[in-house]
Amino acid sequence: MRRDLRGRVVLVTGASRGIGRRAAERLAKLGATLALTARSADDLNKVVGELKGLGARADSFPGDLTRPEDRERIVAQTVERFGQLDVLINCAGVCSFGEFSTSSEEVVRKVLEVNFFAPAEMIRVAAPHLTRSFETSHDGWRPVIVNVASICGRWGIPSMSEHCASKHAFVGLTESLRAEFQRFGIDVLLVLPGLVRSDDLNRHLLRNEGKIHLDFEGAQPSDEVADSVVRSLLKNRAEAAVGFASWWVWFGKRFFPRGVRFFMQRKVWKYARRHREREGSA
To answer: Quick one: average pLDDT of 148-165?
Structure first.
């Protein structure tokens, strides 16, 4: 299957920066009509201005996806502006890097709200319009939802308990809807990046005090994940692990789960040992 995106209306969340923005840039080159949403109206307008400068048809619909009224408004305005909705790409998210024992209920609820409940309810609001896209198509077009989760949704990572919980929930929802939405003619795809380099690490992380070593500077670029999002869309790939680290965990869980478990535990032990050595030399 090769999905043609020319003239199709694509709603991208988290589109002001990172994966969402890079995906929008690639989709514009493929002739898609873009509805972009994020919290910052100024940042969104800059992205839309750049895309229009390249000849793309695009508009911004700023809002907070954790607010029910904003979700309803964003989808309604997209359909009103462009007449339809054919694709939903859920990119928006936050992360918390720190141990569960030093976290709080507020952090847990915030991460779950942004990473799970918001995209889940965006799907609920968008589904009737995506169904209509299938029903009114005369060329075999199948609307699609692309959920950008994380390899943390396949294996729990130490010091990322809240993030992993939200992504496990998101992956589970995606797998359920993939079968459930077949009767509506909607494809549901899953993209699993590893650690992604953020445009603004302080904005992306609610906490940055984990007890393992994560190389945020050496993480995979957003462009790499955006490329996978677009490839998944075009080729209708049900699930894609992005980058070597993500693929390694994805593959290892299936065939070498004990090895992956040992590797994760070893990261905790190594950090603890180095911390004791630093304290001893102080």
So the answer is: 86
Q: How far is CA 159 from CA 164, 190, 212, 275, in A?
A: 9, 24, 7, 15
Q: Which residue has the higher pLDDT, 140 or 35?
A: 35
Give CA–CA dist 123/99, Å, rounded: 31
Q: How far is CA 202 from the centre of its chain?
A: 18
Q: Of 35, 28, 36, which Cα lies nearest the Cα of 84?
A: 35
pLDDT band at 159 (very low <50, low <70, confident <90, very high): confident
What's the chain's Rg over C-alpha atoms? 19
pLDDT of residue 117: 98
Give me the residue spans of the domains in the chain: 9-281
Distance, in Å, from the CA atom of 12 to the CA atom of 9, rounded to the nearest integer, reads 10
Q: Which CATH code is given to the segment(s) 9-281? A: 3.40.50.720
**Torsion angle, alpha carbons of 36, 40, 41, 43, to 10:** -80
Asked whether the beta carbons of 249 and 45 are under 8 A apart, the reply is no
